[in-house]
């Protein structure tokens, strides 16, 4: 391969690495702390924040318009002027030389359309930062701080509480469903509070491992773990719902305050409250798609639900969600549905409406079917909501470890110091022992770290203390390749060969020795990564990445630098150590 091709490959690698590393640079170096805090929250929290901020801005501009419609907007609202100019062009209207507030408001049909400009601005800013975080190098629990919790799920108690509703042959399936439901509930509760990317997974048969990076409070987490979801059935006030949605469409900025509470409670009856209608989005998160006004009085408590399943109707072929009630619940439900035929009934879980179905006839006997052109995923989500009421799994915190953020910052600083010190000592050693050629080794080491961090960012890997240890070890090991090459070059020079020949033969003769030593290390790292867990795995992954990048920089980059000196700078001698005469 000629030198020009190698230079093109090197530049391409560096450019690709920069693209991979850009999210990490943007997240850790360019994103303000307040935006980070919002981006780490749940999608629902971001949506509520964007709506609240947009509503506040719209109220502020409306107040300015009422005071002086011919005034101009501040520079912070330059994006509004830009959008307004775009609207003028779309309407084939001449854009005024100086846009006033009255001019800007005139091109929007209603308050909702005007508010969308602000909502999009806040939303896009935070979602852009969130995307940077998702594609950046993550800091592990030992660096970012946070807590890990191991929770014991008492499946035997859940089986006992279910009683005769399950047969002896179905106990295993019941426990599996109960465990899955417990994990689903914990994920929903923890995500509801916008905590930072929690890791929640099953550990063994009856334990749940929870890892929450960030400044999570132990009391809050324990409350979430030990608490139970609130499931109930409520009557929907369709007339009030229609009135509310009409009001919301024309007053989106003044309907709710920053806390999500109604600013004007007179728009709905006193015996009602407004809840969002939620469904699962493509990421498995609750997404609000509508609003419903329901009665405050609970028609049926979820504790009466005994079982739930998804079926397909034999006649219509529609997917249905079926559930059974205990004897008390069956009587309550029969009386209620008899009195409200033709009205709508909502399933409310944790103040979120998960289903809104019409009561077609009185439902007696305690067996209920919900239909409504559900997809299988939608029906399955409703089934899981219903399961929160009857799969009663007692949870107990077995162990809990809290790691302060200060410890994480200290660990990061120590790791950076260790890497800088290691690199600095190598620089000094290589410059003293190999003179000017040592610069090639140092540049190769810097590029080695650059490539390693780029790979970590590209695969969204997590950086832990053990990963940093693997990097530090890689720095020390990577110099071995340079030392082998340099010593081979010195041998050729001692035999009286020219610079170009000595460099070429030095790299060729050292090639297999370098590859052999690094391949064996790479194989060991692969086995550690595959068989190890936790800190061992983190160490192995960073070591494996470092081995590959160090071979590339030592054999490819270093040689390109030697060839550059030879062909471009026309160097005749090699400054490569003591006692070498040329």
Task: Give an overview of the whole structure.
Helix content is 58%, strand content 16%. With 582 residues, it is α+β, with helices and mostly antiparallel strands. It has a six-stranded mixed sheet with strand order 7-6-12-11-5-8. The chain has a four-stranded antiparallel sheet with strand order 3-4-2-14. A hairpin with a 2-residue loop joins strand 11 and strand 12. Helix 15 packs across helix 18 and helix 16 packs parallel to helix 18 (534-567). The two termini are 28 Å apart.
The level of helicity is: 55-70%
Q: What best-fitting shape do the alpha-carbon axes yield?
A: flat
Strand content: 15-25%
Q: Give the biggest beta sheet.
A: 6 strands, mixed
Number of DSSP strands?
A: 15
Chain-averaged pLDDT = 81
Neighbour order of strands in the largest sheet: 7-6-12-11-5-8
Question: Notable features of this structure?
Answer:
single chain, flat, alpha+beta, 15 strands, 4-stranded antiparallel beta sheet, 582 residues
């Amino acid at each position: 391969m000629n030198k020009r091709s190698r230079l093109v490959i090197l530049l391409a690698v560096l450019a690709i690495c920069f693209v991979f590393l850009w999210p990490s640079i943007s997240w850790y170096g360019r994103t303000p702390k307040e935006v980070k805090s919002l981006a780490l929250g749940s999608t629902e929290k971001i949506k509520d924040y964007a709506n609240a901020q947009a509503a506040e801005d719209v109220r502020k501009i409306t107040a300015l318009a009422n005071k002086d419609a011919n005034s101009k907007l501040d520079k912070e609202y330059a994006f509004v002027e830009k959008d307004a100019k775009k609207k003028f062009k779309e309407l084939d209207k001449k854009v005024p030389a100086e846009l006033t507030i009255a001019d800007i408001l005139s091109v929007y049909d209603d308050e909702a359309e005007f508010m969308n400009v602000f909502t999009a601005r806040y939303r896009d800013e935070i979602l852009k930062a969130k995307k940077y975080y998702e594609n950046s190098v993550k800091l592990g629990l030992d660096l970012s701080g946070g807590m890990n919790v191991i929770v014991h799920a008492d499946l035997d108690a859940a089986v006992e509480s279910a009683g005769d509703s399950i047969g002896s042959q179905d106990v295993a399936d019941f426990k599996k469903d109960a465990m899955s439901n417990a994990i689903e509930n914990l994920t929903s509760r923890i995500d509801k509070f916008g905590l930072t990317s929690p890791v929640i997974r099953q550990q063994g048969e009856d334990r749940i491992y929870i890892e929450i990076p960030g400044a999570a409070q132990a009391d809050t987490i324990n409350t979430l773990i030990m608490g139970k979801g609130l499931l109930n059935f409520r009557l929907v006030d369709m007339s009030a719902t229609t009135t509310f949605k009409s009001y919301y469409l024309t007053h989106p900025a003044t309907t709710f305050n920053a806390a999500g509470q109604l600013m004007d409670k007179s728009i709905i009856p006193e015996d009602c409250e407004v809840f969002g209608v939620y469904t699962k989005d493509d990421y498995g998160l609750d997404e609000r798609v509508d609003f419903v006004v329901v009665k405050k009085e609970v028609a049926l408590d979820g504790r009466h639900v005994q079982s739930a399943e998804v079926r397909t109707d034999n006649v219509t072929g529609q997917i249905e969600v079926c559930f059974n009630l205990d004897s008390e619940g069956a009587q309550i439900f029969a009386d209620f549905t008899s009195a409200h035929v033709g009205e709508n009934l909502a399933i409310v879980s944790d103040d979120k409406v998960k289903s809104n179905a019409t009561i077609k006839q009185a439902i007696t006997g305690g067996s209920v079917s919900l239909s409504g052109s559900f997809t299988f995923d939608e029906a399955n989500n409703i089934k899981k909501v219903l399961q929160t009421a009857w799969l009663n799994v007692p949870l107990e915190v077995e162990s809990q470890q809290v790691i302060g953020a200060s410890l994480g910052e200290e660990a990061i600083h120590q790791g950076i110091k260790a890497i800088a010190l290691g690199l600095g000592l190598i620089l000094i050693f290589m410059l003293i022992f190999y003179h000017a050629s040592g610069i090639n080794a140092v540049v190769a080491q810097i590029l080695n770290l650059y490539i390693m961090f780029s790979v970590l960012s590209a695969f969204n890997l997590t950086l832990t203390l053990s990963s940093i240890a693997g990097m530090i070890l890689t720095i020390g090991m990577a110099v071995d390749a340079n030392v082998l090459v340099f010593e081979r070059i010195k041998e050729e020079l001692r035999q009286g060969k020219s610079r170009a020949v000595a460099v070429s033969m030095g790299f060729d003769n050292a090639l297999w020795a370098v590859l052999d030593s690094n391949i064996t290390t790479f194989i060991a790292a692969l086995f550690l990564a595959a068989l190890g867990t936790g800190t061992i795995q983190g160490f192995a992954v960073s070591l494996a990445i470092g081995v590959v990048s160090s071979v590339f920089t030592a054999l490819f980059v270093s040689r390109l630098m030697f060839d550059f000196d030879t062909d471009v700078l026309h160097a005749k001698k090699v400054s490569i150590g003591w006692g070498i005469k040329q």
